[in-house]
Specification:
With 207 residues, the protein is an all-alpha fold. The protein has a single domain, classed as Hypothetical protein af1432, CATH 1.10.3210. The chain contains ten helices and no strands. The chain starts with 13 loop residues before the first helix and ends with a helix. Bound molecules: fe (ii) ion (2 copies). One fe (ii) ion binds next to helix 5 and helix 6.
């Protein structure tokens, strides 16, 4: 069997769908590597800053790593702007949709809202509402998103920052996207992890 027998989905049988499921599982296993390739594509997007989009993403992930943040945070920081490629007007939601099955709910929420939170830094200059984040006042992860933007996002446009390469983060991306999807032990709904861990930061800076 090279392809299914049907030309309309409603005519497919159990054998067809078992065949497709096998292919889908195989294809899904390559997600991490496709994302890593897409990150390289980011290098060509959105010029005008002092760093490329890939440079910005790597810098955000490096800051997360250096802060001692856990793998969910580091990978979320790395991929937070991946939506720029195909969804420039809702890049935050796009990135969150990619991450959501594989990371803590806290991280997916922060990535989804980071675009609105970032406006506090430049909204007034572009005719947008700088206080758009106020709509989320009282949300469980409000402070985390504010911290994410302040420490890792708005700050990561410095061409002189010592940024780690994509190869350094590749194993972390593969680890996260090899997880069982929507695993409650990963999603940990409502639970927060700090964006920094001083002990881990010290260990990492020593290597
Ligand atoms: Fe962004
Ligand atoms: Fe960003």
């Amino acid at each position: 069997m090279d392809t299914v027998k049907f030309t309309q989905m409603k005519d497919g049988d159990r054998e067809d769908y078992a065949f497709l499921t096998e292919h889908e599982t195989e294809y899904a296993a390559g997600t991490a590597d496709r994302l890593l390739t897409a990150m390289v594509e980011l290098d060509k997007s959105l010029s005008g800053y002092k760093v490329t989009r890939l440079g910005h993403s790597l810098q955000a992930a490096t800051r997360a790593w250096n802060a001692g943040a856990d793998v969910d945070w580091v990978v979320s920081a790395l991929l937070h702007d991946i939506g720029d490629i195909y969804a420039p007007y809702n890049h935050d939601e796009y990135a969150a949709a990619i991450l959501r099955p594989f990371v803590r709910e806290q991280c997916a929420w922060v990535v989804e809202k980071h675009g609105d939170f970032q406006l506090v830094y430049y909204g007034e200059h572009v005719g947008a509402n700088p206080h758009k984040r106020h709509a989320f006042k009282g949300a469980a992860y409000f402070d985390d998103c504010a911290e994410f933007c302040e420490k890792w996002d708005q700050s990561s446009f410095d061409p002189d920052y010592s940024t780690r390469p994509l190869d350094f983060f590749a194993p972390l991306v593969r680890e996260v996207f090899a997880r069982k999807t929507y695993d409650p032990a990963v999603v940990r709904s409502g639970q927060r992890e700090a964006l920094s861990n001083a002990a881990l930061a010290r260990t990492r800076s020593a290597t």
